[in-house]
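Hi everyone,

Forwarding the result from last night's run.
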Amino acid sequence: MRAENAMDLVIRSRRAVLPDGEGPAAVAVREGRIAGLHPYDAVLDAAGQVDLGDTALLPGLVDTHVHVNEPGRTHWEGFASATRAAAAGGVTAIVDMPLNSLPPTVNVGALAEKKRAAAGQCLVDVGFWGGAIPGSLRDLRDLHEAGVHGFKCFLSPSGVEEFPPLGADELRAVMTEIASFGGLLVVHAEDPALLGEPAGPGYPEFLDSRPGQAERRAVERVVALAEETGVRAHILHVSSALCLEPLAEAQRRGVRITAETCPHYLTLTAEEVPPGATQFKCCPPIRSAANREELWRGLADAVLSCVVSDHSPSTPDLKVPDFAAAWGGISSLQLGLPAVWAEASQRGHGLGQVVRWMSENPAALAGLDGKGAIAVDADADLVAFDADADHPVDVAALHHRNPVTPYHGRTLRGVVRATWLRGRAVGDVPGGVFLRPGPGPRLDPGPEGATAGTRRTGPERTTEERTSP
């Protein structure tokens, strides 16, 4: 007979990645939360026991930049396929972008429609961004109160007509409004005045049409307005190292601005893009190998704080072999961890740093209290990661809806062996919940450009809603 204080599950690993470092531990789980952290060989009463040995145990990853596209463009991607891909990649919480679905998530009614579409399908937890577009100013506060994690806007055309960019005056008004209720604005930052049409169908012409200076100028504009309005702002998918200097200077001055990059900018390079291989096309674009090294330096210096997928899939027919005409977006939700680890480990970064970039900091950005760390009272979202195994990528083995990815044929490093969501192994039965921001601390730049400590302590927790009606 089990003792009254028995655990539901104990997972042991000699490479548990904990907030204070990597080492042997036994993680005890009860009622979906981490109830205790113990020595690896501790004798613990539990209904289930898993010994991973030398396989690493990580907190579930948090991907705050995912385009699920359902409803409206579910043939591109949907909640069932996206969350299955997430779980297979060790991602236990995603935050869905407001565009590419029909309708876009720009008012409370559209948010409710998206939740109805997602209900009963999600294998991992799901949160939602709202959208800030021309004419949506009066909807922002209502969306905030309805539980979105923040608001996305574009400064240049988004690629879909139902989600137009904000002009200069509209951007200032949106920032002022969001600052008034303590919200977050996340920005696709490219200056449209510096973008052009590609002069030809090849990748060099496409790359020339979206110069790094377009990103930098847009970042400088966001920094100036964030400083003026006091809003908390976050720059999405930084691809150009030209952005690092204005971001670092703003963070040193105390401007509330953070930034992210993506696995494809840290892994792939412009020099290796084959002719016509439009599975590599994304906006902003993959740049040079030298630029890639500068982005890694930006992560090491904490100017960039998050690494998230910008999973932006489409049907294969939209990836025509012409970089001027093809849809821009990279599918990598399932592959982010091994892609980043393959490159990070070569540069001397450990699993603890990867966890900070891909779990702890994204959770803090979106206000996901109880996520992002293996800590007592946190959600028991856990990942068994065989960090030393080769990972040859076969697109046919991926779970996102359409078999397109630039990683096909590459060998990455590390394999996800198992994923647990609140202490239950993720399988075929949807167990994800809808997430709302909790009251805990947020990701803000700290002194000298470093991000401040952000993990929740005490009883503050992210609000959860069941995903079934």
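The two ends are 37 Å apart (CA to CA).

Cheers,
N.
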